[in-house]
Amino acid sequence: MKKILLKNAYLYTMAGTEIKNGDLLIKGDKIAAVGEELQVDGAETIDLSGQYVTPGFINAHCHIGMFEDSLGFEGDDGNEMTDPVTPQLRAIDALFPTDRTFDEALAAGVTTAVTGPGSANVIGGQFAAVKTYGRTIEEKLLRAPVAMKIAFGENPKRVYNNQKKSPTTRMATAAILRESLYKAKEYIEKKQAAAGDQGKMPAFDLKWESLLPVLNNEIPLKAHAHRADDIMTAIRIAEEFKLRITLDHCTEGHLIADLLAARGYPAIVGPSFGDRSKVELRNLTFETPGILSKAGVKVAIMTDAPVIPLQYLPLCAKLAVRNGMEPEEALKAITINPAEIVGLSQRVGSLEVGKDADLVVFDQNPLAFETNIMIVFVNGQKVYRT
Hints:
single chain; alpha/beta; Urease, subunit C, domain 1; TIM Barrel; 2 domains; eight-stranded mixed sheet; 16 strands; 27% helix; globular
């Protein structure tokens, strides 16, 4: 098993410590040791004096591979706009694994992406967590499903108003989501009551089967919600059914930061780098991540690629710092926080023994605008080097 020893680096472990002159041992595809003055026989040794190492960056919400780069309809597989309730759709069945945007993300130090359907439907389908390195879904896949996409606000209204069908109002969006959850709950209860008796089992329904991990709290709802009222509607429905939820986009989260902190829900904030292209973005600001973080909300920063290409995730963290977020919190927001929010922290998000050897080497502080990426490791392999 190959061993690589990184020596004399400034290690941002994201595990509560920074090691100013640290060493890290990679053994196979895992981190085998983190500390100082490590001595390892038979290891390839790389001296990183004066350089910085972080965990690979994680984008907790995007659509990479779902909307292929430089293509129109032929590569547009992110929104199935024929039915507002599609929990049975799986990102892994649409994702194009060799899209060039994966290589661009990798070169920017983004090693994990949480990707899936867009926000056309009330229930859009299942998100997956993938590495940005690999030729096939099977090589890239970290875990699937990791969340169930739901959407509030303008997008479902616009899509189905154009088709002259429900939902055309926020009331209908909430009602359709509730009805679907009740139907899935009833489906579960019938299966449980049947106690294995095939004669009493309900007819198989892939839609409701697909919602079982949500109702069993194995995965969260992933709620597309920009406006404060839509965020609160998402929370209200999650609490009504006692479900886990993440608040994705959370554009007006800074207006209700105290309420979100009191309830303990995490926010996946972005894309903040762009214009206010629709009404629900009128309060868009890069101050949101910092305000939420200071209020006690666990924050991840995301790009919503292809809205903002994935390689600009580190830039978004830097701009959040410029707009008031503490540097340590900004680095957490693209490493350990998204890992914990999405349920991947046993594998990625920090430099700890036993975790995947996904890490990035910089020539300067990783949040400096002029920093350069020198090496990127994924699963212990050097997959990018300047």
